[in-house]
Design goal:
CATH superfamily of the largest domain: NAD(P)-binding Rossmann-like Domain
Strand content: 5-15%
CATH architecture of the largest domain: 3-Layer(aba) Sandwich
Helix content: 40-55%
Largest sheet: 8 strands, mixed
Radius of gyration: 19 Å
Order of helices and strands: EHEHEHEHEHEHEHEHHHHHHHH
Number of helices: 15
Number of strands: 8
Length: 335
């Protein structure tokens, strides 16, 4: 049944979800820059992201939050993690009381070290909290826009709301699974970006596929250790939001986080890499610091994440990080 949908954020993922929703629903998309909203409405294309995709007439773009949110039943947040608090604090007054919110944002907030579900709870009135849902899983925006088969997870503390989103978004080529493990889905989605940077560094150094497989496997173990410590279901890390998204982000050529690692492994400096990304965001760069803070707070050992942080912060060269990981004390695999 069609519902009024708003997508907050006109980047790659926001644009692809607007295209997805426009198959059956009336869609508004909010763009921070008025010129992007104007171009979408006039030219039926996003001039900056997914530029090859034609945007249907039933998608209306605006740069005004009040206009974007008025009368909406489903609100999708597709905003970079560093902008989520600012945008949602401004938007909060206009979010309809009965709307279901879907967050696709992956990261840990700098300074507060909060997950994105915690940031949204800070920004929104408690009446909205039960209707917060979180979408994650192996899903490159370009492939969704091209209608390639994709499977994701939607989590909510009250799973009935995740099921509602599942029914609204699923179609023959986009399949949603429901979950009640918000903590696990949120941490898996954020922390796999850190491991993807590490894997990219490994590939940039030319260390081979054995090393890549080892990093991915031990990286998943690190993510799971922290997640379980914070109350997540360990099975979540073996699912779409965990292993599924980790595989895609660590191996896919469209992965921005893997690309950052590749460039670091080949000797480029982080400021130059970021400057060359054309405004796109590799969430793992910020998330790495947050992951290390959470690991220290909760007494969880995350050596791959810590070495990745040291490389990103210029405290260690990529080759030194590899040597540090390989020279650690030998132990049982399940520790």
């Amino acid at each position: 049944m069609p519902v009024p949908v708003t997508v907050l954020g006109a980047g790659n993922f926001g644009t692809c979800l607007a295209l997805l929703c426009a198959r059956e629903h009336d869609v508004r998309i909010w763009a921070r820059e008025p010129e992007i909203a104007e171009a979408i409405n006039l030219e039926r294309r996003n001039p900056r992201y997914l530029t090859e995709a034609r945007i249907p007439e039933r998608v209306r773009a605006t740069s005004e939050l009040e206009e974007a949110l008025e009368g909406r039943e489903l609100v999708i947040c597709a905003i970079p993690s560093h902008g989520l608090r600012e945008v949602m604090s401004r938007a909060a007054r206009w979010v309809p009381e009965g709307a279901i919110l879907v967050s696709t944002v992956k990261g840990i907030e700098m300074g507060t070290w909060k997950r994105m579900d915690q940031v949204l709870q800070d920004c929104l009135d408690p009446v909205h909290h039960p209707r917060l849902t979180f979408l994650s899983g192996p899903s490159f925006a370009l492939e969704i826009a091209r209608q390639r088969p994709t499977a994701v997870t939607v989590a909510a503390l009250e799973e009935a709301f995740a099921i509602s989103v599942q029914e609204s978004l699923s179609c023959p080529w986009f399949r949603c699974y429901s979950s009640s493990d918000v903590i696990g889905v949120e941490l898996a989605g954020a922390l796999k970006n850190v491991i993807a940077i590490a894997v990219g560094i490994c590939e940039g150094l030319g260390l081979g596929q054995n090393a890549r497989a080892g990093l991915m496997t031990r990286g998943l173990r690190e993510i799971g250790r922290l997640g379980v410590k914070l109350g997540a279901n360990p099975l979540t890390f073996l699912g779409l939001a965990g292993m599924g998204d980790l595989i895609l982000t660590c191996t896919g050529d469209l992965s921005r986080n893997r690309s950052v690692g590749l460039a670091l492994g080949r000797g480029q400096k982080l400021p130059d890499i970021v400057a060359g990304m054309g405004g796109e965001v590799a969430e793992g760069v910020r998330t790495t610091t947050g992951a290390c803070v959470l690991a220290e707070r909760h007494g969880v050992e995350m050596p791959i994440t810590e070495c990745t942080r040291q490389v990103l912060d210029g405290e260690m060269e990529p080759k030194q990080a590899v040597e540090a990981l390989l020279s650690r004390q030998l132990r049982n695999e399940n520790e």
